[in-house]
Amino acid sequence: MPKFRYLAVDHAGRLKRGTIEAPDFRSAAEELRSGGLWIMKLFDQGKSVLYRDLPALAAPRVKSEHFTVFCRQLATLYKAGVGLLEALRVMAEQTASKPLRKVLREMGDDMLNGHQLSEAAAKFPSVFSNVFVNMVRAGETSGKLDEMLERLAVFYEKEHYTKVKVRSAMIYPAVIGALTIVVTMLMMIVIVPRYVAAFQDMGIELPLPTRILIVLSHAMQQTWFLLPFLFIMPVLLRRLIRGLPNGRYMLDYAKLRIPVLGPLRRKQTIARFSRTFSSLYAAAIPVMQILSIVAAVVGNEAMKRVVLDARERARSGQTLADAFRDSRHFPPMVAHMISIGEKTGAIDTMLDKVADFCEADADQMADRLKSLLEPFMILVMSLVVGGIVAAMLLPVFRILSATNNMG
Q1: Rounded to 5 degrees, what are φ and ψ at 373?
Q2: What is the DSSP letter of 80?
Q3: DSSP single-letter state for residue 207
Q4: Cβ of 277: how many Cβ atoms within 10 Å?
């Protein structure tokens, strides 16, 4: 009998991992649900060795923009009265993403065999997040699938827009930075040696900046083959630190402390937390399970620990607002809005407002960051390249000055 590996949350919000034997995927899901578990991931262990060992090669990867369009189209088609199976077929033919097209066709086959949309989506954890699967399952159970699909469409549209906004703000500085490095290496390795050799043959005393430039140029000529390691080392160091017991936490904590970028990343993470919590709460998922799911998708280990700590404090009897009130990563506004939501019974509405505020603030910060980084990077490039050129021209000025004095 096939073995299925699962990741689930119990009624107390605790994560449960393990394997279960069942005739098929649907039977395994029904047995887990009958045991009081809320399924986050479930897949056939016998068919997923590659998924566990080489996830980057085996698991399908769908771009954020393609997935966002899929969510909006699915919500629109279903609201218009088109059946889910027919909607999947239509989108499989229209999507420009080959991995998504293959996934949608396999999901259609599963639904033909009697599986629900949430069960079919759960087989592709690299494409459909825990939030998507759980909200669709809640919509199927409550009979409000159209509302859940609409909320998912809005959720992924806003998250994608925020990512694109921040990414676009960083593209120009990244290009200028790369161009500065390339130009500097070209001048130091190719141009400077040929230019300076002429002055050395004259036997004149070179100025100190020019001598420093020659030493740096010579060092780069001798060690040019090590330059790629300057780009590889940060990646290797990051992986090494992440492999330490608290390495992931240290890196993610440091990301939140970086000037300018840290507050921007915190705003994005709080927006994701608020939007995810609001969507799951509107789907009538128990709060303890929501906190477990949100902790898994929040995307920052430091923030994840705060959510998990809040879950334990809420389980011990504290209100949800009090559980977040003492956190140094979540601003007081979050606890205040949750407190209002608990009193009015509208936590989802309050957290939606928090998400809207944080996303708007992140957009403004990204625009300000872009306007500040562009002139700063141009200034850095001008100083680096201009400094090299000035050091190269100083001997010329000295020769001209000596000639004028002799005249």
Answers
A1: -70, -35
A2: T
A3: P
A4: 28
Structure tokens at 389: 């050129």
In the structure encoding, which two tokens stand for residue 247, read together? 């390495």
Alpha helices in 35-144 (DSSP H): 49-53, 55-58, 64-79, 84-94, 98-112, 117-122, 130-142
Domain with CATH 1.20.81.30 in the chain: 180-407
∠ CA 267-8-318, nearest 5°, is: 55
CATH class of the structural domain 180-407:
mainly alpha
Would you say domain 1-59 falls under CATH 2.60.40?
A: no
Number of neighbours of residue 224 by Cβ within 10 angstroms: 12
Residue among 105, 110, 79 nearest 91 (CA): 105
> What's the token pair of residue 386?
């201009």
CB 293 within 8 A of CB 130: yes
Closest C-alpha among 135, 125, 127, 126 to residue 155: 135
Dmax (CA) of the chain: 101
**Which residue is associated with the tokens 């000529």?**
221
Residues with Cβ within 8 Å of 405's Cβ and at least 6 positions away in sequence, in order, are: none
Query: Tens place of pLDDT for every residue, the chain, 407 residues?
Result: 677 888 777 766 677 778 888 777 777 877 877 777 777 777 776 655 444 433 444 567 888 889 999 999 999 999 999 899 899 999 988 888 889 999 999 999 888 888 889 888 888 888 888 888 888 888 888 788 888 899 889 888 888 887 887 777 778 778 888 888 888 888 888 888 877 777 766 666 778 888 888 888 888 888 777 777 877 888 888 888 888 888 888 888 888 888 878 888 888 889 888 888 888 888 888 888 888 888 887 888 888 888 988 888 888 888 888 888 878 788 888 889 999 998 888 888 899 899 889 888 888 888 888 788 878 888 888 898 888 888 888 877 777 776 666 65
Reported for 9-13, long-range contacts at CB under 8 A and 24+ positions apart, including other chains, are 9/37, 9/38, 9/40, 9/288, 9/289, 9/292, 9/293, 10/36, 10/37, 10/38, 11/36, 11/286, 11/288, 11/289, 12/288, 12/315, 13/286, 13/287, 13/288, 13/289, 13/291, 13/292, 13/311, 13/315
Phi, psi of 4 (to 5 degrees): -115, 130
CB neighbour list of residue 202: distance below 8 Å, 6 or more residues apart: 399
Which residues make up the CATH 3.10.20 domain(s) of the chain?
1-59
